[in-house]
Amino acid sequence: MMSKKRSNQLSLCEDVKILYDMALDSQEENNDQQALSYYTQALDIVKSIDDTSQDIDQLQYDIYINICDIYIRQYNLTVAKEFVDKAIYLVRKLQQKDEIAQCLDRKAEIKKLEGDYNGALIDHRRSVKIKRKIDISEGLDVSNSYHNIGIVYYHQGKYDVAIIMYKKLLKIQLSALQDNDPRIALTYNNIGIVYEAQCMYDDAVSMYKKSLKIQLSELDDNHRDVADTYIRIGNVYRAQGKYDSAISMFKKSLKIYSSALDDNHLSIADTHNNIANIYGTQGKYGEALSMYEKSLEIRLLVHGDNHPSVAEIYHNIGNVYEAQAKYDDAASIYKKSLSIRLSVLGNDHPDVAETYEGMGNVFNAQGKYDDAVSIYDKSLKIKLSALGNNHLSIADTYHNMGNVYDNQGMYNKAIRMYEKSLKVKLSIVGDNHPSIADTYNNMGAVYDSQGKYDKAVSMYEKSQEINMSELGSKHPNVANTYNNIGFIYDHQGKYDKAVSMYKKSLEINMSALGDNHPSVANTYNNLGHVYSHQGKYDDAISMYKKSLNIYQSVHDNHPNLAETYEGIGVANAQQDKYDKAIWFYERALTILMDAHLQNHPDLARIYDHMATCYDKLDRFHDAAAMHQRSNNIHRSLQRVSTTYRTSANNINRSTVPSTESNVAEDSSAPKEKQYFSAYLQALKQGSCKNKVIRAIYTGPECVGKSSIMRVFTQQQLVNLQDPTLIANQSDKMIHLKVFKITDCTTHDLDQIWENNILGVVQEKYENQTKNQKKAKPTDEQFSTSHQNLNATKPVRSITTNPQNTTATTLISSSISPPAILSTEDDLLLQQSRNFFNYFYPSLLKKSNDDSQYAKLWDFGGQSIYHVTHQPFLSGNSIYFLVFNISQDIHDRVRTRDGRLHDITYLQSMEEWLTSIVGSNASQDKILATIDKDQVEYSLPVVILVASHGDYIASERQGINRFIKFEQEIIANMPRYRKNIYSSRIIFNCNSCDNTDITVAERQQCSLRLHEILKSSAQSCPFMHKFIPIRWYIIATILHMPTESRNNEGVSSFINQIRATRVDKIMTILQVKSLAKDFGLYEGDNELLAMLSYLHDLGEIIFCRKENECGIIITDVNWILGIFQTIIHLHDCRSGSLYVKSLLEEGSRTGKISAKYIDYVLTPYELDDAMKKRIINLMETYDILCRMKSDNNSDEIHYFVPYLLRYDVEPFDLTRFHVSETLYIGYEHCDIPYIPDGIYYCLLSSYLKQWNNAEVELCYQCAKFNLMHSFYDIIIKKDNSHIALQYCYRKLEDPKRAHAIKSAVQKSIHKDRPHDIVKGKLSSLINNRMPKFKESIIRYYVRCYKCSKLTFIECNHESKNENLIRCQNESCDTLFKSQSMNDWIYPDEKREY
User: Fold this and answer.
1) Which of 577, 638, 795, 1323 is close enough to 681 for a disulfide, judged by CB 3.0 to 4.6 Å?
2) 1247, 1219, 1069, 1052: which is closest to 1151 by C-alpha?
3) Helices 32-48, 54-73: inter-axial angle, 10-degree rounding
4) Where is pLDDT greater, at 593 or 538?
5) How many CB atoms lie within 10 A of CB 1242?
6) Long-range contacts for 1381-1386 (Cβ within 8 Å, ≥24 apart)?
7) Nearest to residue 548, comparing CAs of 531, 538, 561, 566?
């Protein structure tokens, strides 16, 4: 007879199966929430069954997999990962290999959605490998993996490989299935999608039609798969410019979806989105927005407001706003899209790059070119990381960057970007692809701007040949090229040919896009220009009015309307209708200003038109006012800002030349005037590649870093020189050298910066001179003459290049004259002239310097300074990590006085490597060619170098020791292997040995190390950044040594700025004010970027964590000296016994008094405010921590645990009950070592958290007495973990002892100190070591058998909560953990 318990379990099993079937039905109906509810109920029942059968385990596995699929569909990828991991755990128990392959496919799908395509391929291939072992004949199950791999290759842009995968799949399907199987139709569809991406539109349609034929024969005509195929065919028609046919396909699809699906089904939303895309292309922006809103409504209903598909709609709406020139609206909606994509997909997903691209297009349209380039760079970085360097999307970004450079007039840069784009496209899609035509088109536009008309026509013809071949003669792209060729003919005065081209363009666009499209308006506008040039003013005005009607229907105040009004004004002025012309010019001005285009060149041109009209009407005062407005705009384009602060009046104006004598002077110094004009232009737009990178010598103390640096920079070693005591020098804590990496010569950094400035100014000057030789007026000249009334601006067709505009404030359209020049403008121009006079003498004799330099730092290596390193490290530096070849890596470090330290050389290397690598947030890789081998390295690059070669008997012995050393490093820190370059260079630093052979060996080592540094530096992205020259000028003000100049008055001008405006500690607001006052401010983002750049070079310390939005230290040696003075306890051989007692207290207790700090800082002559700011800065970085004063004392003490001597006796815990140890930290493969700098800062943060003065210290261990608690917390460093214990006093009375024990356990459960320790450690790692931000922090216990740490997870036995399984595969022991019992309360244990 069946037992009651057995009967109940069978009943429960049946309940699970019923719930599972109900969940499946809900999942198939896309009712995810209902499905999840059923699955959850089923799992709850499974957990209540004591002895689960294999069938129940299998069912539980199926539930986990199905839940994973739901979360994948919802883009909740973190939860999806959790369930696939649970499924893997079960399937290993079931030992079913085919289901392991299914799990790998899910993991691959998650990685694909995260943008980790390489990771997805690895998992899919592992899946295929398993499936092949099960099915040698490569059946349908294997073929599904080919389908999955094909999708990944498609996303990577590897279309040919994707096709190979799909054809493999098709071959298997055709042999295993009936010819009309719907699965074959799906494969045809996928092949069509790839052909469509390659613009092989006819082939794509052929595939889709094959798919459709199968679907119509095997499925109902109203089946959703049929509708899906109509959608795909419609997308091809859209790409071909067959918009009516595309709409027809989409409407067929919509009809099917509406009859077969719920009104709020996602497929209906997708169709609305596709129809909206076409309306947007046709310029039907209202209809497009309406469709997008319908799609958005459904997606929000189904997915909520934080899903990638919602972000996609926001992005598409942004595209429409951008086309309508509603740039603020576009930027706002792009930010919505970006916020969702960042939160769901992470920072490095290609979709995030797509949104950055859209924002860059808006910035470009607004004339915010630096912002556009910056955000395109962000996009490019993501794409290169996610997609590799050979993807069409990469080419698109290069293409868009070319558009920006074209708009900036940086034509050579534009051509280089287009050529980069072209190279990528040609390698992927061949030479006959429409995207190739787009790039040829834009290159033609650049050549047109340069006056290279033959080259421009050649490019346009290439573009047209491809468009005609691939898209047909009636495609809008063909019309665009005709428009652009007409543009050239207009420039050349070939007006009849221009009209012919414009009419061809007009005919195609009206046919393809309709009569009311902006492209049609552009062509009418251009025809108006030609007719005006021909003197056919009535015809011109007729064309302009047609253009006007279209623009007004699109957007009441579209910027293109201004061009049309301007054109009508010109036509009227040519007919002597000056009042009428002025009215149209005013309308144009109003529109431009409504669009926030205050300082745009178009405004200047219109002011000049108006000046001419006023002159003709004898209104000379008004004419002069208009000319002045025009000139002000030209000047503003050549300086950094039009808003300045009058606080610059603090400068002694008697020492500088007046504005009138320098700017308004006659032609007595034309060359100087031209140079000044070039300087103003360079100040606004000039930049050059960064030429300096910091190279930092690091390593344990007393290993010869300074000696190697001296040899490397070709300095002699001083005979019998003592070891470098950098940290003991009162005036200099770091040794600095700047040397040229091409010839190893040393240089002054200020001279390098000056050469950069001079080179850019010289380039601008030469460009202006060339333009003048061509007798072509440019926007950079200060125009005071009447402008040509025909100088209106035709419209070119540039792909992904909206109108060029810049931001401004609205002013009245009244023509009343403004003030000639404001006081602030006067002052600004004067300051610009002062800086120019500072550089001008050198301009006449300096040439451009294209050399690259390294700024060498020799950083103190004593362990006591580890806590101060973090503010000075940079991910944009190269590091030399020096070690003593004569010492074994496991030897203890020898101090400068010959004593052995408690740490080993390995631990010191772990300290340095973890601090260096962890401080860099970048995941960038570089390809460096060293010794003809191209190797990929992670940033930052660390070059391993050895010293003390004179202690090694032979070269072979030295190399063997070097190899052993590097092997030990990699064995202990495998994560850093891609950051380290092992040079195997061993320096002989014996200062007593300066024989010819030794000197020659040193030179060879230096040359070898120089080549490594050169290759590494030239490969770093930091050396390819373009730096605005205004950054160098600000750096000159902040930190340039005030050397004597030929012009003493000008030098005193620089000196006076420094004396009155620059402090050793400044807030970011002070620096911002300084930049504004001298015309060097271009926005907060650029200011932050500039400060970060100078920080990376080690010129300043930029602390963003302080209040007032950040602190800048302008004298690095000064602040390091102060840190050194406070934290380094010098031997005090004589002096006050009281001071000596303060020193002893610090080394014995790890605490120092405020009186001690006051004493040691006396030589710095700091006022109280400065001293307070320094203390606050050190507290911000947790270098010290103020302690709570005792009740009976007003004396302030600071907690500085790193000052503690390592020979201080450990705690006496014999009278305490001590808990088992709970470890908190990271897997060794993620973070192999917690640096001292982090550990000591951690102790300070705990002290702040617990607000407790009662803390005892011994070496790398602290005991905190928590007030109002019965226990102390002991925190100790243990490699990559923090060891945690609690202790409480032993009592002889058993009852009291039991009561105390119970109270402690309850208090631990309530206070949860382990959670506090974990949270603080995680926060500190995330903030100070951003490289490890994604690493998972866990609780660990030690296995009694193998003594290794194993992290706590949901794998302990349900019958005994203290049992845990060791994760060490060679151990796998199930053991009882007292640590669990001591720290984790029973009802918490399932959480860990």
Assistant:
1) 638
2) 1247
3) 150
4) 538
5) 24
6) 1381/1220, 1382/1219, 1382/1220, 1382/1222, 1382/1286, 1382/1308, 1383/1219, 1383/1220, 1383/1222, 1383/1284, 1383/1308, 1383/1314, 1383/1339, 1384/1339, 1384/1352, 1385/1305, 1385/1308, 1385/1309, 1386/1361
7) 561
For residues 710 and 746, is the Cβ–Cβ distance under 8 A?
no
Q: How many CB atoms lie within 10 A of CB 968?
A: 16
Report the amino acid identity of residue 192.
G
Give me the residue label for tokens 């883009």.
Answer: 75
In 683-741, the DSSP E strands lie at 687-689, 692-698, 735-740
Asked if residue 363 lies in contact with residue 379, where contact means CB atoms within 8 angstroms, the answer is no
Token pair of 559 as six digits: 């910027």
* Separation of alpha carbons 623 and 630, rounded Å: 11
Q: What is the pLDDT of residue 985?
A: 93
Question: What is the distance between the alpha carbons of residues 961 and 946, in angstroms, rounded to a whole number?
Answer: 10
Distances (CA, A) of 980 to 319, 928, 1237, 1280, 1345: 44, 12, 21, 20, 35
Tokens of 82: 């959790």
CA-closest candidate to residue 662, choices 786, 840, 847: 840
Per 3-state DSSP, the chain is made up of helix, strand and coil in percentages (nearest 5) of 60, 10, 30
- Strand bridging mode 942-947 / 1216-1218: unpaired
Highest mean pLDDT among 633-647, 734-748, 755-769, 1226-1240: 1226-1240
Helix boundaries (H) for 938-1083: 955-972, 996-1019, 1029-1039, 1048-1061, 1068-1077
Q: At what angle do helices 434-449 and 411-429 cross, to 10 degrees?
A: 170
Q: How confident is the model at residue 827 (pLDDT cuts 50, 70, 90)?
A: low
Contacts of 509 (CB under 8 A, 6+ apart): 476, 479, 517, 519, 520, 523
Give dist(CA 1351, CA 1224) in Å, integer. Answer: 9
Whether the bond between 1021 and the residue before it is cis, its omega within 30 degrees of 0, is: no
Q: Indicate the DSSP class of residue 1128.
A: -
Residue 1033 burial (CB count, 10 A): 23
Spatial distance between the Cα atoms of 638 and 1030, rounded to a whole number of angstroms:
12
Report the C-alpha dihedral over residues 1332, 1336, 1341, 1346, rounded to 10 degrees.
Answer: -70
Bridge pairing between strands 692-698 and 853-858: parallel
Who's near 844: CB < 8 A, 6+ residues apart? none
Asked if residues 199 and 470 have their Cβ atoms less than 8 Å apart, the reply is yes
What pLDDT score does 1050 carry? 40
Report the C-alpha gap between 37 and 287 in whole angstroms: 40
| 931 CB burial (10 A radius; 0-12, 13-18, 19+) | exposed
Rounded (5°) CA angle 965-970-974: 165
Is the Cα dihedral 1330, 1331, 1336, 1339 positive or negative?
A: negative
Query: Pick from 1277, 1211, 1279: which is nearest to 1243 by CA?
Result: 1277
Say if residue 1292 is exposed, middle or buried (CB neighbours under 10 Å; 0-12, 13-18, 19+): exposed
What phi and psi, each to the nearest 5 degrees, are found at residue 113? Answer: -65, -30
Phi, psi angle pair for 628, to nearest 5°? -65, -40
- Tally: H helices and E strands in the chain: 50, 29
pLDDT in tens, 671-730: 777 788 888 888 877 888 888 998 888 888 888 888 888 887 766 554 444 444 433 333
One-letter amino acid for residue 519 of the chain: S
Contact 1260, 1203 (CB under 8 A): no
Output b/e per residue, 675-713; b: 16+ Cβ within 10 A: bbbbbbbbbbbbbbebbbbbbbbbbbbbbbbbbbbbbbb
What end-to-end distance do the CA atoms of the chain give, in Å?
42
- Beta-bridge mates of residue 894: 900
